[in-house]
């Protein structure tokens, strides 16, 4: 979806991803090193272990931002830290909204979702119908969350995120150069690199799959992470099953109209 919204994606997209990951890794590693060197690993570990219990007396969870704010002596530095911290959370909702609207718009254009989702404003060139639908649904969800926050606190989509968009894509990367349907696409790609005769995308897919399987096992078996509660597991299963049911119903409905829904996935969409 991201590549489809970037001009000259074959040349720009993968470089942007690699550069972003490299910069983020360097900055994050430097931040972790400095904070743990100043505050101390033992204190951070103990504060994290006690957080949420009656033994934890600080008013805020022991995040890096909170602890650095306590230690900093410069008022201007503390103010900048807090503004940037709040600004990060202001960025997340718009990104989430844009992501969902684009997914539903693409699904509608592929005939896998109702056509109303594809209605675009002629003035602003944005999908207005699906945006307002999400505003209404999000407002209802906000009310539910406000009334039943203690119940929804046990809900986590971490396992679903690992299994669906990441693990499936990693497995797809492994078989992409070898599948009969996608082999020609890989061979015509400008980044058909190989290492000891094995496509580099396959090697990356194997490493990513092993890493994600390890994370999935850890989150599924360890109660500390709060992702394997019955409520969370039921929600993950519900999302998977409901998605399959919706697609099956849509496929049969479009087939009765004489539209082969699978043709939308027969080739990569144009730039």
Q: How would the global form be characterised?
A: globular
* Low-confidence runs of at least 5 consecutive residues: none
What structural class should be given to the helix and strand makeup?
Answer: mainly alpha
Strand arrangement in the largest pleated sheet? 1-2
Kindly estimate the percentage of residues that lie in beta strands according to DSSP: under 5%
Q: What is the total tally of β strands?
A: 2
Order of helices and strands: HHHHHHHHEEHH
Which value, in Å, is the CA radius of gyration?
Answer: 23 Å
Distance between the termini: 11 Å
Please outline the major beta sheet. Answer: 2 strands, antiparallel
- How many domains is the backbone divided into? 3
Instruction: Give the % helix.
Output: 55-70%
What's the helix count?
10
Mean pLDDT: 82
Short description:
This protein is mainly α and 271 residues long. 66% of the residues lie in helices and 1% in strands. It has helices spanning 9-39, 41-50, 64-71, 75-109, 128-147, 149-152, 158-175, 183-187, 200-221, 230-256; strands at residues 194-195, 198-199.
Description:
This protein has helices at about 10-40, 40-50, 65-70, 75-110, 130-145, 150, 160-175, 185, 200-220, 230-255, and strands at about 195, 200. It has about 270 residues and is mostly helical. The chain has 3 domains: about 1-70; about 90-155, no CATH class; about 155-270, no CATH class. The protein starts with 8 loop residues before the first helix and ends in a 15-residue tail after the last helix.
